[in-house]
Specification:
The chain is an alpha/beta fold. The protein has 12 helices and 12 strands. The strands form 2 sheets. The protein has a 6-stranded parallel sheet, with helices on both faces. A 6-stranded mixed sheet has the order 7-6-8-9-10-12, with helices on both faces. Helix 1 crosses helix 2, helix 1 packs across helix 3 and helix 5 runs parallel beside helix 12.
């Protein structure tokens, strides 16, 4: 037999306070004294009280849920990103619904329709490759607030949170040039996205500012095995690069495996630098020099922008970019003099 749900009135009676006080505790209002809050929360746990979100939604016209769509879950960057976004939403008493578009616009559209069916209050979107910019107009017509993050389609159409990829790549190029490298290659991904465009812009700017040579750009799928296979192509470049910048840490880790299989030791024979500074950067051999983009901070920033948008749908569009930090390790220690 299904057990009846514990009510606010029952919690209030057990705690010796008013129903309004219990309601304030549930909504995390600062108007309740801490000792009262502690007592009520303890009793809610003991009585197994669960907030009736459906009733709250009817009262407030809000589901207290938001959707997050990422292009893949293979990259641990998105796990960190989600953690940052979720922390902000939990503090605001919201639940996060996560979906993986597999970088497929059609699948992404289906996810958005399901999110609409669940009545999400808004969406944090890392657009799939090939997303039509008109999707954002359509979402606005649906009355579905959106924040783009890490990638974007259309400029200044929605709020946006990301990392400063251009500055980060410029920092990486400068680091390599300071170690004497002049012929620098770039291992990129095949996916045509704004994230790739920004990295390429950073690479071009870094070379122009330093006078270093573009030793070539090689593309591969976003998989460490593909990056390992790309090692041979990079070493065969006619300019003979002494250093290789990578789109992210996953490609950098795979590349180092491939280089070693070809008899070239990363950090001794050739310098390798990644981007993101994920945990894997300290687990590679040798440890990977990487530009930290701080995915948790980016995720938290995206969530804060969405909360801001939900509070005021007409507020001006805002962009935020987390500042990068170069984390120097042994993979780029070799110097050319």
């Amino acid at each position: 037999m299904k057990r009846k749900r514990v009510t606010l009135d029952q919690v209030a009676k057990a705690a010796g306070v008013s129903r309004a006080t219990v309601s304030l505790v549930v909504r995390k209002s600062p108007l309740v004294a801490q000792h009262t809050r502690d007592r009520v929360e303890q009793l809610m746990q003991e009585l197994d009280y669960v907030r009736d979100i459906g009733a709250a939604r009817l009262r407030n016209n809000s589901s207290r849920t938001i959707g997050v769509i990422v292009p893949n879950l293979v990259n641990p960057f998105f796990t960190e990103f989600l953690s940052g976004a979720e922390q902000v939403m939990v503090e605001g008493d919201r639940v996060v619904l996560l979906a993986n578009s597999h970088d497929d616009p059609k699948r992404q559209s289906g996810i958005l329709q399901r999110f609409r069916g669940h009545g999400v209050d808004g969406v944090i979107l890392c657009p799939a490759q090939g997303t039509d910019p008109r999707l954002l107009t359509q979402m606005r017509e649906w009355g579905l607030p959106a924040v783009q993050s890490l990638r974007e389609v259309g400029k200044d159409v929605t709020d946006y949170a990301g990392g400063d990829y251009i500055k980060g790549i410029v920092m990486a190029v400068r680091h390599l040039v300071d170690h004497g490298h002049r012929n620098i290659a770039f291992l990129s991904v095949t996916a045509q996205t704004s994230a790739r465009d920004e990295r390429m812009a950073g690479f071009a700017r870094g070379l122009a500012l330093s006078g270093a040579c573009d030793a070539g750009i090689v593309e591969c799928e976003l998989e460490w095995e593909s990056a390992a296979q790309a090692a041979q192509q990079l070493l065969a470049l006619p300019t003979k690069p002494t250093a290789i910048l990578c789109f992210n840490d996953i490609l950098a880790a795979g590349l180092m495996v491939g280089l070693r299989h070809l008899g070239r030791e990363p950090g001794l024979d050739i310098a390798v630098v990644g981007l993101d500074d994920l945990a894997v950067a300290q687990m590679t051999h040798p440890p990977l020099t990487s530009v930290a983009i701080h995915p948790r901070k980016v995720g938290a920033s995206a969530a804060q922008l969405l909360v801001r948008r939900l509070a005021d749908p007409d507020v001006a569009v805002k962009r935020t970019a987390v500042a990068p930090v170069l984390m120097q390790r042994q993979s780029s220690n070799c110097e050319i003099r």
